[in-house]
Amino acid sequence: MTYQNRRTFLKNGLVAGTAILTPMSLMKIMAQTGQNVNSPNNKVLLGVIGTGSRGMHLMQIINDNKNQNGIEIVAICDVYKPHLDEAQAIAPNAKAFEDYRDLLEMKDLDGVIIATPLHVHAAPTIDALNSGLHVFCEKAMARNIEDVHAMALAHYETGKILQIGQQRLFDPKFLRGMDKVHNGDLGIVTQIRAFWHRNNDWRRPVPSPDLERFINWRLYREYSAGLLTELACHHIQVGNWAKRALPIDVRGTGSISYWKDGREVYDNVALIFRYEDGTQFIYDSMIQNKKYGLEVQIMGDKGTLEMETNRFFLENPPAPPKPAGIVQLVQDLERNVFGSVPIGSSSWDAELADTNPGEPIIQNDSTDGTPESLTGFANSIREGKSIPGLFEEGYYGTMWTLLGEQAIDTGEVVKIPQQFVV
Amino acid sequence: MKVFEYSTYAMGTRFHLVVPGWDEPMGAAVGAYVSRILREEEDRMSRYKDHSELTKINNNALKEFVEISEPMKQILDECQFYVEATKGAFEPLLHKVEKMAASAETINEISSKHQTSLWKNIKWDDHKIRFLSSGIALDLGGFGKGWAMEKIVDCLKENHVTSAFISFGESTITTIGSHPLGGPWKTQIPNLYHGKPLDIELEDASISISGLKVKKVDGKVKKMAHIYHPSEERMIEEDILMLTKSVSPLRAEILSTALMAADDSQKTAILQTFSDDGFFECKGGNWQMLKKPLKQANES
What we know:
The complex is a heterodimer.
Chain A: H1 3-13, H2 23-30, E1 44-49, H3 53-64, H4 66-69, E2 71-77, H5 81-90, E3 95-97, H6 100-104, E4 111-114, H7 122-130, E5 134-137, H8 145-158, E6 162-164, H9 172-183, E7 189-197, H10 212-215, H11 227-243, E8 247-255, E9 268-275, E10 280-286, E11 294-300, E12 303-306, E13 311-314, H12 324-334, E14 341-342, E15 359-360, H13 370-383, H14 390-410
Parallel strand pairs in A: 1-2, 1-4, 2-3, 4-5, 5-6, 7-10
Antiparallel strand pairs in A: 7-11, 8-9, 9-10, 11-12, 12-13, 13-15
Helix pairs in contact in A: 2-9, 3-5, 7-8, 8-14, 11-14
Chain B: E1 3-10, E2 13-20, H1 24-45, H2 53-60, E3 66-67, H3 70-85, H4 97-101, H5 107-115, E4 122-124, E5 128-131, H6 144-158, E6 164-168, E7 172-176, E8 185-189, E9 198-202, E10 206-211, E11 213-217, E12 220-224, E13 228-229, E14 234-235, E15 240-246, H7 249-261, H8 264-273, E16 278-283, E17 286-291
Antiparallel strand pairs in B: 1-2, 2-6, 3-5, 4-5, 6-7, 7-10, 8-9, 10-15, 11-12, 13-14, 15-16, 16-17
């Protein structure tokens, strides 16, 4: 389907691609490791552009899960020499570049991972797609909505895979949780609350003052929207995923209320997203108190999910089994019979745990989805096609994050401009 | 007759309330009050909840003074009364059995140790608590259900419930008023050993049963020790059940537990001090009355 056809199809039929992304399709793409992924024909050769902390983390995960992902890192690139040198230690056989355009000219490359600072996601992503390469780009997608949209156009027009690093899409507890939401286990979901709280200055050590903006790019508005693009983006995507819809508008406030150290991004934000069916998605983030940590609470009339901590709560937990004496007592009373109640023992040995603390969404919660998302990317490359709806999850996650920033900056209720609906 | 029933899990067991003459719309609000009481008290007294007030005390009171709520202060005061009144047979502490098992102390030495009960090393006032020695942890396992039941009975009466039957884990049973068809509620305590069951009549009264957890699994009787003998520093494994009947569900629970752990002198003191209450013992499947309650002598 061409971009124009697809756009017409989606606009006429569905709100967005989110409607066709299913947990099953994600599980399926992760499960394609039965084949020998490390055979020469199946290996996926990737370059990593941006080898700072996140890029190095992804490289380490790739190496640690080689048998699952079959990825070989054959090229690395960073403009900052110390980062490049550290990455070379993880991938000693990879060719090193300081200019990503040189890396894109490498032969036999299947794709690239983009883990540069946010404001330099768009250019290498678009150039890579136009070079015929598949791209795994860290979230958020880009610093402004025009760049985000341009990346989407490049993805649709080249037909190359563009996967955004929203790892919760591959996290088993989120996948199972979404099944519960979409199967109606929570009933009608009318409110979602999410938050991400930390208590630190969010600064990285700077070897020289002239590198302050370069190293601490997350604190400056030219490069980042701070808490919004670096943290909120994850949960905003989850909110849309749960609702299988896009918000109709967003409003919000933000401030620099604590870390008045020269940073330009808010250290305290609050957003409310409104959906067509009346659902409110309430989000907040700050970095001056960590008591509540992070959570996504999806609330329906039958149950609640707390996704980050892997808990599911029923509104009305099942009642315990009645002892025979109580059954007999009630029957006697209903028939106006005066009987003796055969009841009493040292203690009832609980056969079921108290359901009040909720139950786990999945057993063995051992991953945040990042290794699986990289395996999914490699398997998509092997198949030569994108997972339906996956890109759009990332696209709208970032788009609504940046619209949230606009709402805070302007104090207005912000809707998505029509030209940015894909 | 209409009957309202409310059942839930609470405090690691099951809770059942039966209110004759009430229907669902009338009872729903009362059920919600009961649920809230159970949650609040569990959040306060459970040692299995990370954030309960009790856990906070147990984790910190050796290092520093820990602030306590007014209800917790009342609980501690109540415990103090029963520790003294039972001559130490009731001691709401978590004991470490494995520590004792490894020691070679004689029973006499253990008894003398009992005279310096760890309970004395817990100090509190209106606002704070402190443990004065290590190895102490509060355990309100033999107290909590009765305490919650007292509050529930008060709540039900305030909400115009005049007749009700309540079972908390089947080991604590409370009645409000009389049976709707007249006269006291009749209960029959089953006997797993094919002996004679115990008939007890209740009218604004409670019973509590302590002993080995006993249940039939595949036709066989299975026993599980869960009560600690503070003076002998061991789990109680004797095949005994103790039943206390009292107007107070809290007193019934405390005294049935205390009797399980009591030596002869403590047992005598309990029976004399709590003369309004009735006490029964089941040994080897045979129930016998230790003392009739002074005001109610109608047990068979």
